[in-house]
Amino acid sequence: MFLWDLVFINPITNALIILSNIVLGNFGVAIILFTILMRLLTMPLTLRQIRSSRALSALQPRIQELQKKYKDPKRRQEETMKFYREAGVNPLGCLLPMLVQFPIWIALYRALRITVGGTPESIVDLSQRLYPWGYIEQAVPLENSFLWMNLGQPDTSLILAFIVFASTYVQQRLATPPTTDPRTQSTNQMMLWMMPLMFAFFTLQVPSGLGVYWAMSNIVGVVMYYFTHGPERINWRTVLLPPSAAPAGRQASRREEPSPKEKAPAEQPAEEPADAALLSGGKRKKRLRHGRSRGKRKDRR
Amino acid sequence: MPFLLLLVLATLFLATACVGIARPEGWAGPTLADGQLVASIGRGELAAVDTQDASGRVIWRFPSKDQKHPDGSKIEPEAIYSTPVVADGTVYFGDYDGWVYALDLDSGDIRWQVETGGPIIGSAVVEDSVVYVGSDDGKLYAFDAETGELQWQFKSGDGVWATPLAADGVVYLASMDKKVYALDAASGEEKWHFKANGGLASTPVLTDATLLVGGMDSRIRALDATSGEERWDKPFKADDWFWTRPLVLEDTVYAGCLDGKVYALDVNDGTPKWEQPFDTGEPVRAAPVLLDDVLLVANRKGKLYGLNLEDGQAIWGPIDLAKTVLSDPLAQGAMAYISAQGGALFTVNKDGRAALLTLTE
Prior knowledge:
- Chain A has 301 residues and is mainly α.
- Chain A has helices spanning 2-22, 27-41, 43-69, 73-87, 96-115, 120-127, 134-137, 159-175, 182-203, 208-229, 236-240, 247-255, 281-300, and strands at 145-146, 149-150.
- In chain A, a hairpin with a 2-residue loop joins strand 1 (145-146) and strand 2 (149-150).
- Chain A starts with a helix and ends with a helix.
- Chain B has a domain at 24-195: YVTN repeat-like/Quinoprotein amine dehydrogenase (Methylamine Dehydrogenase, Chain H), CATH 2.130.10.
- In chain B, the strands form eight sheets. Chain B has a four-stranded antiparallel β-sheet with strand order 1-2-3-4, with no helix packed on it. In chain B, strands 5-6-7-8 form a four-stranded antiparallel β-sheet, with no helix packed on it. In chain B, strands 9-10-11-12 form a four-stranded antiparallel β-sheet, with no helix packed on it.
- The A-B interface holds A 91-92, 95, 98-99, 102, 105-106, 109-110, 113-114, 117-124, 127-128, 132, 134, 137-138, 140-141, 152-154, 187-188, 190-191, 194-195, 198, 202, 205-207 and B 1-6, 8-10, 12-13, 16-17, 19, 21-25, 27, 79, 81, 121, 158-159, 161, 176, 197-199, 201, 216-218, 239-241, 243, 258, 283, 285, 300, 326.
């Protein structure tokens, strides 16, 4: 526990207080700045996640073939893993950024309880965690109100929970890779609703400062997606509609799946969008034509 | 994989839910009047205990089932940090919900109750039939002790967590806005203020026209009580905040610190008197008190020490109460009452013998 405090909770607590000092004591703005910094720091992992998602989606048809071909589960597993290795894809690669975020969430949760928890006991605890720098000492006491919220208490107005729900949904919708497997499709569909619901529920239980972090983290994630993929490749109307309203998109993504050999993820990591359903119509048609012509060239060879 | 993620998420938040939101527990110390010990005996609960009765008979509890606020709502204090004070047969204290109560010492009946704009953390003081109490809404309130009628209020720049000090027609107020104020006791008008480098939550102490105040800038300062000017060449600096009420004995000030140490300083110039401060190893929030000629010190972990006043060496200790102790002990000659968090009451004597006080209805 001591190491955990030393490595995560104390640095985050002090970082939040320094940021709060920089923005003239506004702790809510400090959390937003902290979120942006965290997203920038974990950006390489996020990009890796995007690449892994794309690579996994590109390999789906071949995986399905393997699953049909090998009935023995052990053999099927071996062949699948062998195929992943040959294609240079780690199936757990897209989990890493999420796993990295967990300790940050827990530490931030604890740091918020200590900094803006607001009880006298938590302030005594805070004194034990501050670095002995005059700059930090002078920041105490901390302002725990931000907009309509007390950052140390759950926001019972439901506004923050809704923002967390909506932003998680959009982020999830953008990040979910397309798949041809009906089972995975239904799982993705469930996750698309479950994750936002869970985070919205958690927002009602934890200090609202953590909800601000989640909402901001999602918003930054969406902005990053916007800039890494380009505005013309995102159809916001489709993003905001439930996936069942865009079956053509899934069909399209199915059609443009290249074979793993033709499109190894390590070679072409940034070409495909995460979800073809999110492409705008004109762009999608162009890409489909391009996909078919590539297929013809391959046939000719 | 998605199921794995969901599982990890659910486990994670079940774990955090167990920790929950930070809840105030309260650290009100005990007080003694007419053979009755008035103390917090649980979260948001106060009781008067008959100290003449060996069985620890509880005379009354507050709040009782039928005690209500003026609007008819039930009284349910969230926590009590304010050590009760007794004057003229009335118990005065504030609760974390922002209410100030005046209770009859004998029966526990409410004489009056007034709501402030924020949690009350410091204790009330009674001087010349006026009750002074600070609130986290940043105000110091002066109420008529008999009726609870508001006489005046003074607004500081941040919450008031410290107990005010009233003496010689002046009320001294330490505020979390980093300032010490001297106010006219009759009108509430400001006479002077001094600005420190950190929030001030510790109760000031007055000795020979010198005001001693510790703060969250890890310093103890000596101020001229009439002008607010600093008296020492430089304030005494420790390794963490001062949140205890210092104890002044002759020309020495004894102060516990959240760095776990107890310091003895010369009142005249702030220089250390002991070769080394006494290190308890855990934050000291409870004020040091004197048991005859032994300095009693309690740290947050509930470890008690009896120190030699001259050199700061431990005469006895540690005695482990195995409870969190953040409240100020109450010294009565060679014995002290200590209120631990959760409501346990202990007695400890100058020889270091501690006992749990059992209560009966």
